[in-house]
Amino acid sequence: VQLVESGGGSVQPGESLRLSCTTSGFTFSRWRMNWFRQAPGKEREMVALITPSNVTNYLDSVKGRFTISRDNAKNTAYLQMNSLKPEDTAVYFCAVLLGGNTYWGQGTRVTVSS
User: I need a labelling partner for 74 at 20 to 30 A (CA). Which of 30, 32, 41, 59 fits?
Assistant: First the structure.
């Protein structure tokens, strides 16, 4: 199982980024995909999830600004992040829970600063 995040970077408040999580080694379409983030000195928190049937859920602080989606043909999950705020600064990880094990990507850093 491999998960590879990309798309992070440094942006100013109000700008947008789209993160990608490209996966391999499992049947992507059958599993819930999750995005987490970890800010410096803070606990890792779940940002968004999407089920195989495209039901989504979001952390309250990102509702209305972030959108999670998936492309089963590309085995890839996305996190569209709009109206970014300094408090969104973190390393963002995608994850999948398979057979009782959680698999993580290496993370992609997002920095929001003026």
Answer: 59
**Structure confidence by residue, pLDDT tens digits, 67-77:** 999 999 999 99
Instruction: Report d(CA 92, CA 41) in Å as an integer.
Output: 14
Asked if 1 contacts 25 with a C-beta cutoff of 8 angstroms, the reply is yes
Residue 39: alpha-carbon gap to chain centroid: 14
Task: Say whether 2 sits in a helix, a strand or coil.
Answer: strand
Residue 24 class from Cβ within 10 Å (0-12 exposed, 13-18 middle, 19+ buried)? exposed
pLDDT one-digit tens code per residue, 95-107: 999 989 999 999 9
| Alpha carbon distance, N-terminus to C-terminus of the chain | 37
Cβ atoms within 10 Å of 113's Cβ, excluding its own: 10
